[in-house]
Design a protein that fits this description.
The complex is a heterodimer.
Chain A: H1 2-6, H2 26-55, H3 71-97, H4 100-130, H5 138-170, H6 180-205
Helix pairs in contact in A: 2-5, 2-6, 3-4, 3-6, 4-5, 5-6
Chain B: H1 25-30, H2 35-65, E1 82-83, E2 86-87, H3 89-125, H4 133-152, H5 175-178, H6 182-211, H7 224-255, H8 269-286, H9 289-303, H10 310-323, H11 339-367, H12 376-399, H13 401-407, H14 411-441, H15 447-473, H16 487-490, H17 493-523
Antiparallel strand pairs in B: 1-2
Helix pairs in contact in B: 2-3, 2-4, 2-17, 3-4, 3-6, 3-7, 3-14, 4-6, 6-7, 7-8, 7-9, 7-10, 9-11, 9-12, 9-14, 10-11, 11-12, 12-14, 12-15, 14-15, 15-17
């Protein structure tokens, strides 16, 4: 939209020819609002889990001792995902400082760690299914696969978008004054990371 | 229309197009990123679904009025639907389910949010387009496959979903209970896809309203239609993902063998009801708030008076949007709920009548001693207020749990929901479509046929839905294939027949609207820029507005309701006119781009 862009003098600031808005550019505001929607989606899933687990604690009997879940592997995976949030922060800092080389490397690291997380989750799923722990395996199986599956889906989308942003960074599309893509994907990435910390706690640990 | 269609007024000016649109046809009209085109696309899609949903209602009314008699044209339907033209119970269940689903998700909701959210928000706040035009396009083009998928249910084995538009589990979760497997899966998938469309639309609207307002368009100069659409977008944003989550769980129950809602395997059928109505009650306000907002704009225009109590109107919209989250339990008074919890839900529900009543009194205050112009949109808007009052009052009855237990799942509920959804939302939609039609298509709709449509609709609508209260109090169940199977309902059969005949007339009347809509598109009188002498920014633009809307960013000096202003020689004062000094007041000249 050429006419829209023409009104933006400094794209990192709200357009001056407009009434005072939220003080942030559209993409960032839009992502924050979209994350509100995501919060409600995961709330529905987590709420379902909490209700079913309180209603039928026997379906989780023996958990976590007799659990089919391999908690150490997932704990390492959780650590990896938290690390990817750190690399994301470093990438954004590099973008703000305008250091192209470290921006590219940190973005690449984030995308790769994210892909590794998904890979470990696929490995975990195949092992669980081999053991006979399938989605139709009672309430535990139903909730486990739905919640971790949708989180994994979100990470996958995140990795795809992160790859896109990384490619753009390698082409030098982000500058010190305009790096909206990096900041917006960062918001999403941190959100998905945060959701995992909650899911790991309630599904695996408690 | 001589009083309103006065041609160009002193406040309109001829300026060149904001943006010469030389894109090829497919980018301009099919995969368009222009919010106005997307709004019109949504309009055509949702009017089609409105017609489909209405047709299904006719099937239901035939069966209820004349059970066992062959449906006219019924022999043309496949054998799984009719037996020698007589509607089969399975098809009746499908018709009930799909009527509700089409009307709520594919007709009223896109008509209000998809059409007018898209069309009005950028025009009324002085923005060139939405904040994210491409996401806006994606929003429409995900709604279309969702609709087609929902329709496809009719053509697969077992027919379409048949567990009601609320799809209560375990009826919906287990195909052995209804005999519908694929249709129910399509229902879930379709709503999940439609949810994506709604979320893409809603965060776009919210960002646009927050960040894209023209200079001077501060929050308390926004038209009430924009306030209502903004709060509605917030509700859509937060309620739809809950429905998506619930639909996903239901889909998994049907396909991969999970047990969220199947009590035999430890699942919780009530969980579906809680999730569904946690979405479903904000949804009710999604379906009425934009109607209230647009009716406010039209009533102030028709009454030629400033809206009464603008600030209280805004606060009432916000209050309804907020309270709407805490009332879902009133759909579940009969689910074995703890009476203390039931009382809590009863009180929170009754609280909503306060902001609703504030709005109603403000509308009355607006038309009080006004010099009313009864143009077609105004007629529909006034019908909206009157019918909404009836629907609102029966809503207060149902909110009271002792009374609700008596009328739960009877035709009283059907009467109530049609008084708010048809009498409320749909009259406001007719008002809004006839009001903004000249801006959308550059032509006037025929006022004569508009009046004919309005009066016939008002009469047949009341003949159809008012007697349903009586049926409900008599104990007529909400979803029943053949009411004559019970002796106590047999004596009410003449009422049922009266309702059915009125419903057929009501349906036929809507064809007048369809003919007027299509006919005026090609043959209507050319519309002036400001046919209703309205103050809104969109009326300063040509009809239809060019791509990119405004040649220069407009500056806003006041709210949109300055009718009969003593500062103006005319009886209105547009938002972008700098100095109140009458017709000779200097007008902001386009500075060139």
């Amino acid at each position: 939209m050429a006419h829209a862009a023409a009104m933006h003098e400094d794209v990192m600031l709200p357009p001056s020819s407009r009434a005072a808005g939220a003080g942030v550019y559209n993409e960032k505001l839009g992502m924050w609002i979209f994350l509100g929607s995501e919060v409600m989606f995961f709330t529905a899933l987590i709420g379902t889990y909490v209700i079913l687990r309180f209603a039928h604690p026997d379906a989780w009997v023996g958990h976590p001792r007799t659990t089919p879940l391999n908690i150490p592997v997932t704990a390492v995976n959780t650590f990896l995902l938290i690390c990817s949030s750190v690399t994301m922060v470093k990438a954004f800092a590099a973008a703000q400082d305008g250091i192209q080389r470290s921006l590219r490397l940190w973005l690449l690291a984030t995308a790769m760690i994210g892909a590794t997380f998904v890979g470990v989750q696929v490995y975990e799923y195949t092992h669980l299914i081999e053991k006979g722990f399938v989605p139709s395996e009672g309430l535990f199986g139903s909730t486990f696969y739905t919640m971790t599956g949708f989180h994994g889906f979100h990470v996958t989308i995140g990795v795809i978008c992160m790859t896109y942003v990384t490619i753009k960074a390698f082409r030098g599309k982000y500058s010190q004054t305009d790096h909206r893509g990096v900041e917006v994907i960062g918001l999403y990435w941190h959100f998905v990371d945060l959701v995992w910390i909650i899911l790991f706690t309630i599904v695996y640990l408690i | 229309m001589a009083t309103t269609a006065t041609g160009t007024s002193a406040y309109t000016y001829d300026h060149g197009p904001a943006h010469v649109d030389d894109r090829p046809f497919i980018r301009k009209y099919i995969f368009s990123t222009d919010h106005k085109i997307i709004g019109i696309q949504f309009l055509l899609m949702s009017l089609t679904f409105l017609l489909l949903g209405g047709t299904l209602a006719m099937v239901m009314r035939w069966q209820l009025g004349f059970p066992g008699k062959p449906l006219p044209g019924g022999t043309l339907l496949p054998e799984t639907y009719t037996n020698n033209g007589v509607v089969l119970p399975e098809f009746y269940n499908s018709a009930v389910t799909m009527h509700g689903t089409f009307m709520v998700f594919f007709a009223i909701m896109p008509l209000l949010v998809g059409v007018f959210g898209n069309y009005l928000i950028p025009l009324k706040i002085g923005a060139p387009d939405m904040a994210f035009p491409r996401i806006n396009m994606a929003s429409f083009w995900t709604a279309v496959p969702a609709g087609l998928l929902m329709l496809a249910g009719f053509f697969v084995e077992g027919g379409s979903a048949a567990a009601g538009w609320t799809s209560y589990a375990p009826l919906s979760a287990r195909s052995d209970l209804t005999g519908v497997h694929l249709g129910q899966i399509f229902w879930c998938l379709s709503l999940i896809i439609l949810g994506l469309s709604s979320i893409m639309g809603s965060f776009n609207y919210i960002t646009t309203v927050i960040n894209m307002r023209a200079p001077g368009m501060n929050w308390f100069r926004l038209p009430l239609s924009i306030w209502a659409l903004f709060v509605t977008a917030c509700l859509v944003l937060l309620a739809i993902p809950v429905l998506s989550g619930a639909a996903i769980l239901l889909l998994f129950d049907q396909t991969i063998g999970t047990h969220f809602f199947d009590p035999q395997a430890g699942g919780q059928p009530l969980l579906w009801q809680h999730l569904f109505w946690f979405f479903g009650h904000p949804e009710v306000y999604i379906l009425i708030l934009p109607a209230m907002g647009m009716a406010s704009d039209i009533i102030a225009n028709g009454a030629r008076k400033p809206i009464f109590g603008y600030t209280s109107m805004v606060l009432a919209i916000i209050a309804i949007g907020f309270l709407g989250w805490g009332v879902w339990g009133h759909h579940m008074f009969q689910s074995g709920m703890n009476p203390t919890l039931g009382t809590t839900f009863m009180i929170s529900t009754l609280l909503i009548s306060v902001p609703s009543a504030i709005k109603t009194f403000n509308w009355l205050g607006t038309i009080w001693q006004g010099n009313i112009t009864f143009h077609v949109p105004m007629l529909h808007a006034l019908a909206f207020v009157s019918m909404f009052v009836i629907g609102g009052l029966s809503g207060v009855f149902m909110a009271a749990s002792p009374f609700d237990i008596y009328i739960h799942d009877t035709y009283f509920i059907v009467a109530h929901l049609h008084y708010v959804l048809f009498g409320g939302s749909l009259f406001a939609i007719f008002a809004a479509v006839t009001y903004w039609y000249p801006k959308m298509f550059g032509r006037m709709m025929s006022p004569f046929w508009g009046r004919v449509h309005f009066w016939l609709t008002l009469v047949f609508y009341n003949c159809t839905f008012f007697p349903m209260h009586q049926l409900g109090l008599h104990g007529h169940m909400r979803r029943i294939y053949d009411p004559t199977q019970y002796a106590f309902l047999r004596e009410m059969q003449p009422v049922n027949q009266f309702i059915s005949i009125s419903a057929f007339c009501l349906f036929a009347t809507q064809l007048i609207f369809a003919a007027n809509f299509i006919g005026s598109w090609f043959k209507g009188e050319k519309a002036p820029d400001n046919p209703w002498l309205d103050n809104g920014l969109e009326w300063t633009l040509p009809s239809p507005p060019p791509h990119g809307n405004f040649a220069t960013v407009p500056t806003v000096y006041r709210g949109p309701y300055e009718y009969s202003s003593p500062h103006s020689d005319l009886d209105y004062l547009p938002q972008n006119v700098p100095m109140p000094g009458g017709a000779g007041a200097p007008h902001p000249q386009p500075a060139g781009d």
